[in-house]
Amino acid sequence: MNAAHPLESADKEFRTWVEHSLRPRATGRMISADTFEDAMAQARFFPDVLERQKNQKEFVLPIWDYLDIAASEERIRNGRQALRGHRARFIEIEKLYGVEPEVVAAIWGLETGYGANRGAHSVVSALATLAWRGRRASFFEDELIAALRILQSGHVTVENMIGSWAGAMGHGQFMPSSFLDFAVDLDGDRKADIWSDAPDDAIASIANYLKKHGWRSGQPWGYEVSLPPDFDFGKTGLDQVQSTQDWHDLGVRVASGGRLPDYGPASVLVPAGAQGAAFIVLRNFHVILRYNRSEFYALGIGHLSDRIAGDRGFVANWPTNDPLLSRDEVSEVQVRLSQLGFDTQGVDGLRGPNTTRALRAFQAENGLTADGFLTHSVLQRLRDQQA
Question: Which single residue of 10, 84, 174, 261 has CA 20 to 30 Å from 45?
């Protein structure tokens, strides 16, 4: 007798898990037998989803390249076209939720290219695969249960619940749990249909998400600023919050000239260090971070929304002549800093806040500009110091 094909064996194990492990847990969380059977009868094990998760890479782009992609001329042009094409809906959404159309359009544009790239995976199958054998299995099982709850409520059919390989859905790439908390029915058909080609419910849901997380209508996410020559870069970062007056007293000014507008407590970010653009970021920047925790993402949304609204690009130039460190090189920096007594609290090759703080301390002690920005010159300085 021939041995079972590995994929056939995996399929059988998957079905066993669905019936004997997932079913009782779903029942315990108020998923009806009919909903479970209808959804999971069509669920399939997707080996490619596990491969996608396994092979996820930390693509490290310098901020200037990231922003060029996020706010490309095509994305700006398509964003303005989207605002014109759905003008009445965007006006209605702004009245309901107090979120500016350009901001909603920017998220829509960066998440799915204004609906062009919403994913092609069965969300139930993708989430079931990840809940069975993926990393963070408990997280994905919770999301799978949330997806079943959406189906049980009648918002969408199993066949039409399509999304990314990780289960993000619709024009705004909501995970199922976010759908349950923030999706809205704008057109009054009793369904929050974020999957439809018509984006009405989806863009309203994006606005509702921002509103529920504290969006302040009429206030910007932030703006570009100029810093004085003697500025203390130890004061930069989201954990460094001061009043507008305090920043003014430190010599911070609007990049295009003039006094800082007062929108409350603010932080200064220098995503490319002392040689690149600097930004004051405000409450709404933190709200964008609730959509995606990446500072680059939040800057990308802010910049794209400004460009869609007609603003020009940045005043400052970027230090494009100093290539970004690779992940291995960042790991080397972390090792060398820690060996010198500047603890990065781990070696992972990522530019996190602990590495930034450690690097600033090293820079300050060695008479360098303490901006915490990782460059090849910093790495070489560390190598020379330990030679």
Answer: 174
Q: Are residues 261 and 142 in the same domain?
A: no
Residues 6+ apart with CB under 8 A from 214: 283, 286, 287
The domain in which residue 349 lies consists of 327-385
Using CA of residue 155, residue 172, residue 269, residue 351, what is the dihedral sign?
positive
Q: What is the pTM of this model?
A: 0.94
Exactly one of 74, 92, 102, 111 is catalytic; which is it?
111
Q: Measured between alpha carbons, how far is residue 25 from residues 17, 54, 138 in Å?
A: 11, 26, 12
Residue 7's alpha-carbon distances to 41, 46, 54, in angstroms, are 18, 10, 18
Question: Is 143 among the catalytic positions?
Answer: no
Q: Look at the chain and report how many structural domains it folds into.
A: 3
Core vs surface per residue 53-76: b (16+ CB within 10 A) or e:
beeeeeeeebbbebbbebbeeebb
Task: Tell me, yes or no, whether 150 and 49 share the same domain.
Answer: yes
